[in-house]
Each structure stands twice: as C-alpha cells, then as structure tokens.
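[Q] Does anyone have a clean structure-token version of this?
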Amino acid sequence: MLKHTNRFLVAFTLLALTLSSSFSFAANKAEKPKEKLNNIHDRIESLTKELGKTKEAHADASDALKESEKAISETNRKLFELKQRQQQQSESLQALQTQKASLEKTIEGQKSQLSKQIYEQYLHGQQNYLQVILQEQDPSELTRQLQYFSYIARARQAQIMNMQSNLGRVTKLNEETANALKEVVNLKSKQEMERKNLESQKQAHSKVLEKLSSQINAQRNEIEKLKRDEKSLSQLVDRLARASQPKPQKSTPTNKPSDSSREAATSKTETEPHTQLPLATNESLPNNAFDGSSFESLKGKLNLPVRGEVTNKFGNSRQDTGLTWKGLFIKSNEGNEVKSIANGRVVFADWMRGFGNLIIVDHGGGYMSLYGNNQSLLRKIGDTIKGGDTIASVGNSGGNETSGLYYELRSHSKPFDPMSWSVLR
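[A] Here you go.
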C-alpha cells in the first residue's frame, strides 16, 4: 500500500511539473505574438497616416494636372482659331492676287491705249493745236476747240492717275495681307512651342500622378495584408490562451478549400488581367442634315461623335469604381475631331474632376449631350453650333490611361443609353 502511495505521489509531482512547464511555455509563446500584434498595430497606424499624406499629395498633383490640361485645351483652341484665321487670310490673299492680276491686265490695256494716244499727239497734236490758233477766225469756235483739247488732256491725266492709284492700292493691300499672314504664321509657331511645353508639363504631372497612385495602391495592399495578419495573430493569441485546457480534435473531412487555396484563387482573380474588347466600331460622323428638327425626333438617327471603338455598355458595372456606366467610352486616337451630334448651344466648357476637359451641348427640350476626357475644347460657353461642327479633340484628360471620348446623353438631367438613339456605320 505504501509503495502504491509513493508511486502516486511521484506521478503527481511529475504531472505538476509538466503542466507548469507547459503553461509557462504557452505564456511565453503568447507573449511574442502579443508583442508582434502591437507592432502591427503601430505599423498600420503609421501606414494610415502616410496614406493620408499621400492622398493629399495625390489631390495636389490632380489639381496641377487639371491646370495643365486646361492650359493645353486653351492653347489648342487658340491654335484652332489661328488655323481658321490663316485659312481666311490665305483665301483673301488669293482673291487679292486674282484682283491684282485682273487690274494689271486692264492697266496694261490702258497703258497701251494711252501710249498710242500720246504718241499720236506727239506726232500731230502740237501742229493741230497751232493750226487751230492761227487759222480759226471765229472766237467762239476757237474757245470751243481749246476747251475740247483741255478736256482730253484732263481726261487722260485722270486716267493715268486712276491707274497709278489702282496699282498703289493693290500693292498696299498685297503687302498688308502678306504681313498679316506672316504674323499669323509667327503666332502659330509661338503657340506650337507653348503647346509642346505644356505637353511636357502634362506628361510630368501624369508621371507624378501615376507614381502616387501606385504608392497609394501599395500602401493599401500592405494595410490590408497587415490587417489579415492582425486577425490571424488575434486568433492565435486566443488559441494560446485556451492552451491550458486542450480538447481532443476530431478530424472532420470537408470539401471546402484551404485558406491557402482560397488566397491563391483570390490573388489570381485580383491580378488576372482583364482585356476590354470593342463592343462596336464607329466610322461615321454627325452632320447638319437634321438641323431644324426637334432632338426628340432624332432617336435612332444619331451618329456617334467620334470615330473609334465602343468599349462598354450603358448600365454595366465599371471595373475601376464598381459604379454603373452612365454613358459610353469610345476608344479613339488622340487629336481626332469630336463632332456635335446635333445643333444646339454650348452651356459648359471647362475641366471637371473625373471627366477632364468636358463640353456640354444643350439641344433644347431638356436634352443635352456630354463629351468628356478631351484633349482640347474648341468652343466656348454660349457658342451656337450646328450638327457635325468640331467642338473638341480626343485626348485622355482627367487622368485616363487610354485615349478616347466619354459620351453621355441626358434627358432632364437623367442619363439614357446613347446606343439606343444611334446608328453605326
């Protein structure tokens, strides 16, 4: 009996020492995750602050990009006007050159006639004049003859002066037009230099914006990763706290994927590239054939405002924001002309966050068309336009990576599907 008692005491002592060691180990093991958990908390807080500062810098860069894009739009609008002025000056110069050629031909004929008359007068005029004075006996007839000769002389003199005046006028107009054309060319050269400088600024701002966007995404991803780590560590701390009362584990088969497989699937979904395929291609542009008709009567007759590829459907979810598309994005080459779909009046022409250089045309009856992400706005608020008029040029303003046009139609401020009103050719 005593032997059994001693054996029991020894076994109990060993068990106590074992449990004490286990609890001590569990406690020490729990302390390290707690310390790591606190470090993660600090890192998350630090990253959140950095993210806030980066967002502020991102907003500043967006504002700088806005000013640059607005300046580029204004410069291109001036270039557009200068091009029109240059064309008008060229047409005026051509008309003046035609007029000058006609006048020179007339003047050559007059010169030939005057030369002949002067030569005849040189041969006969002096003798006839003396004969009239010496032979004419009637004073009244003499007076009449002298007045006749005087009239002819004055008429010839006036004719000569008129030719000289015409030649001087044509020469002066030609010089003025040439100077004006030279001035327009010089202005265009200066504007082109300014536009190149602004393009460089735009590229620099875009790089800053892209860098900041990448930084924000990286910080967000790190924060999400740390939050997942924090959750895992919290669960580990809870499990370690219950280590003093281990429970038998039952193996239960399950068909659910493991955490690692789920994470791999999620990672694959998030990183898998998504290629936008064109849903439709447009090659036809608007014209003024329907000017004078009510906009409501144009359903099914409108052309899209630019040549290019339609890459989304109205009402579908956007990949970038998760919101729904309220219009169309038409992928198109930078610099392509953007046409007004119908006649109307420009009610907005400015830069707007998310839309870049935006122009809005009021077509009456509560209908409006919106054209966004333009490189340049070529019309101003209050301008009256016809269907098919060029109102902007295609770009990627507003921070877009892809060059193209964002296009909306609205009725009483509510967007509706532009494709249901358009015909593709």
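[Q] Thanks! Anything notable?
[A] The chain has a mean pLDDT of 73.
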